[in-house]
Specification:
The protein is mainly β. The chain is 1% helix and 58% strand. It is built from one helix and 40 strands. The strands form eight sheets. It has a 22-stranded antiparallel β-barrel.
Length: 717
């Protein structure tokens, strides 16, 4: 969908939005891919302030997390991390910030501010965005200095739950057409959105974030363009609410909990990058992208939703990553080529504590270090076979190395607030927890290497004064992974097979009636093998396993209609069929079940109406609706494994529609906006995990946000 509300300097003529989905600038309507591009104004109109809300604007995109807005799991066309919740797993939907791949999923839960646009590429990206992208890619593209003049904005807001927001940006040209600096900041602080009835207890799902970004652009010559970016942010909100033990849900409303230990979701993220572009000639250019990023999470999660200590977890991880990409672009003589080299390194050091209702009180402590390295060479060429007929050929060869080491875990006695006294080593220990004597020096290590050849073949044709049609084949790959949830025994810790997907797609996009109607439609079929998912069992024990074979197919339609000046309708529809062709877990045959977080139908509908000119400005009404049919949170769907206390029918969310709306007045420099998200206060779950099968008398369910509303004032200069 060509959401044409990006900054004015982002156009390619006639209001087209320019994207870099193929690592070069193109009009969105000229890209033979299923891409949704959202400009900064569109995000504001739809009430999208965090990456976890993007599902309201993109068909067949689901976003879920057991931790609220922290560590979001992106699922595109049914391909995601399924019910996986450990921090060491890579997302099959690659997330990028200004073309820099972000390995830790904790960094994906970002506030959205001062963005040029967001590009969502649906389908495996096995050529140009090649690291672990079996599902797709999301690229958050920030605004960079224009090298001319000075500008900026300040925005202040207030909403329910006593929420205060502030953001702003300022840009200064240090030397005309040569050097410029842009600084941006984002702040939000508000009370918990889920009322905690426990006496003196804190409310769940509060907001407390602060982020900043600095971009320095240098263009000493017409052929050399350098952008240096640094960012940092932190989140100190309270944990997501949990609907857990039913005995303590009596008399509570959906947006209430009775919890004695509402913890904090403490996360930090920072990074530096250098993007250097050099034009060697009118036809050839080189690009170097270097980045170093880091962060950490410290999540204190009461995972029982009860005023007693049943399951309390402290998830702690520290991250570092480095990446380097060298890319060459060629454009001329009927051939356009993009190719290059990529190297990525990331490290995760995890220290988790699981307090369980053991006799006596105690639990497990877990430590490990994971280091992954990825090497790739890639290239893609667009070859003009005839006038307006283009053949695309692309390939990527990837080598992934992973090491899981310095790993140990032990069983301890002691309450949540008491010192831990180790009594037995559980990792390394191949037997039942508690059967191996405690050894403080015992360590466990594994290593794995994967090689993959992926790529793309496509044929596209642009009709004279008409649409672009295309057909494509893409092969995607996600490296093998180790079970980050193995802490009761080393027998459950091992590398599993890489995911692979063969994707076939046909599509059409274009305009009709000038700018009256803009449309894009695609149909696809996926042959999907070895999806990586969690299998929780009594113990409690978590196993990371492969689903041998799945199939996914569906279609998507996106359109923008402008029947009259000052009135625009945006609509999209996603239909999805997903099923496991082969999967058996815990003795239950799950073949034919739907994949988790893969509703059959998603739809978005909204309009933007400039109602009247008043007071020297324009009054605009912009409501929108997002619909989702039923989705399952578990590969079991409604099936319970034989001989277990599972009640998997609880782990789903039924069909629902949510309405957002905004009313804004915009003058020359001032915008005043009133907004409401989830206007009708729909009660839905965003995530669920089987804990009954793990030995607990309840399942783990996380409610989505209630109705939020407020006002904001923005002044641009």
């Amino acid at each position: 969908m060509a959401q044409e509300s990006a900054p004015a300097d982002n156009g390619a003529g006639d209001g087209d939005i320019v994207v870099t989905a193929q690592r070069r600038e193109q009009s969105l309507l000229d890209v033979p891919l299923a891409v949704t591009a959202l400009g900064g104004d569109t995000l504001a109109e739809r009430g999208i302030t965090n990456s976890s809300q993007l599902g309201n604007a993109v068909p067949n995109l689901q976003i879920n997390s057991p931790y609220g807005n922290t560590q979001p799991n992106f699922s595109l066309r049914g391909i995601g991390v399924a019910n996986e919740y450990n921090s060491n797993q890579a997302s099959p939907v690659g997330v990028y910030l200004d073309d820099v791949y972000l390995a830790p999923r904790t960094s994906h839960g970002m506030g959205l501010f001062d963005l040029d646009r967001i590009e969502v590429l649906r389908g495996p990206q096995g050529t140009l965005f090649g690291r672990n992208t079996t599902g797709g890619a999301i690229n958050f593209i920030t605004r960079k200095p224009t090298l001319s003049g000075a500008d900026g904005y300040v925005q202040l807001g207030y909403g329910n739950f006593d929420t205060v927001t502030a953001q702003g940006a300022v840009e200064a040209t240090l030397a005309e057409d040569v050097a410029g600096l842009r600084l941006a900041v984002n702040y939000a602080k508000g009370d918990g959105q889920i009322n905690n009835v426990f006496p003196g207890g804190r409310d769940a799902a509060s907001v407390d974030t602060l982020q900043g970004r600095a971009s320095l652009r240098l263009k000493p010559t017409d052929s050399l363009d350098i952008v240096l970016r640094a960012y940092g942010g932190r989140d100190r909100g309270t944990q997501a609410a949990v609907h857990g033990l039913a005995d303590f849900r009596t008399g509570l409303g959906f947006f209430e909990t009775d919890e004695n230990r509402i913890g904090d979701n403490n996360t930090d993220a920072w990074g530096f990058s250098a993007n250097i572009a050099l034009e060697l000639s009118d036809q050839i250019s080189l690009t170097s992208i270097t980045s170093y990023d880091g962060g950490k999470q410290d999540l204190q999660q009461a995972a029982d939703g009860a005023p007693v200590d049943i399951l309390d977890i402290n998830w702690r991880s520290k991250y570092r990553q480095f990446s380097q990409e060298l890319r060459a672009n060629y454009d001329g003589d009927g051939v356009t080529f993009v190719g290059g080299l990529f190297y990525g390194w990331d490290r995760n050091i995890t220290d988790n504590t699981f307090n369980l209702p053991l006799p006596p009180a105690g639990g497990f402590f877990q430590h490990y270090r994971q280091v992954r390295k990825s090497y790739a060479v890639f290239g893609q060429a667009d070859i003009e076979l005839a006038d307006r007929l283009v053949l695309t050929l692309g390939a990527r060869y990837t080598k992934d190395k992973s090491r899981y080491d310095d790993a140990f875990a032990y069983l301890f006695v002691g309450g949540v607030d008491d010192p831990q006294t180790p009594i037995a080593t559980t990792v390394p220990c191949a037997g039942v927890a508690g059967t191996c004597p405690y050894d403080p020096d015992a360590r466990f290590a594994l290593a794995d290497t994967n090689n993959a050849l992926t790529g793309r073949v496509a044929l596209s044709y642009t009709f004279d004064d008409g649409p672009l049609v295309y057909a494509s084949y893409n092969r995607g790959y996600r490296a093998g992974a180790v079970n980050g949830g193995g802490y009761t025994s080393s027998s459950g810790i091992g590398y599993i097979e890489p995911e692979r997907v063969n994707a076939y797609e046909v599509g059409i996009k274009g305009r009709a009636g000038g700018r009256l109607l803009t449309y894009a439609a695609s149909a696809f079929y996926y042959d999907y093998s070895n999806q990586q998912l969690q299998d929780t069992r009594a113990g409690p024990v978590s196993f990371l396993v492969n689903a041998p074979a799945s199939e996914v197919y569906g279609l998507e339609i996106e359109t923008t209609l402008r029947p009259i000046d000052g009135f625009r309708i945006d609509a999209s529809l996603g239909w999805l069929h997903s099923k496991y062709k082969e999967l058996t877990l815990q003795g239950a045959d799950l073949s034919g079940n739907s994949l988790p977080f893969a509703p059959k139908l998603t739809a978005q509908l909204g309009f933007e109406w400039d109602m009247v000119e008043v007071g020297g400005g324009t009054l605009t009404f912009a409501p929108n609706m997002a619909y989702s049919s039923r989705q399952y949170f578990s590969p079991f769907n409604d099936i319970d494994a034989p001989g277990t206390p599972q009640v998997n029918s609880e782990l789903q969310q039924g069909a629902n529609a949510k309405v957002n709306a905004s009313l804004s007045w915009t003058g020359d420099a001032l915008t005043v906006r009133a907004f409401a998200n989830n206007l009708f206060d729909r009660k839905t779950y965003g995530y669920g995990l089987d804990l009954r099968g793990a030995g607990f008398p309840y399942n783990f369910l996380v409610p989505s946000a209630p109705r939020t509303y407020g006002v904001s004032v923005r002044y641009s200069f």
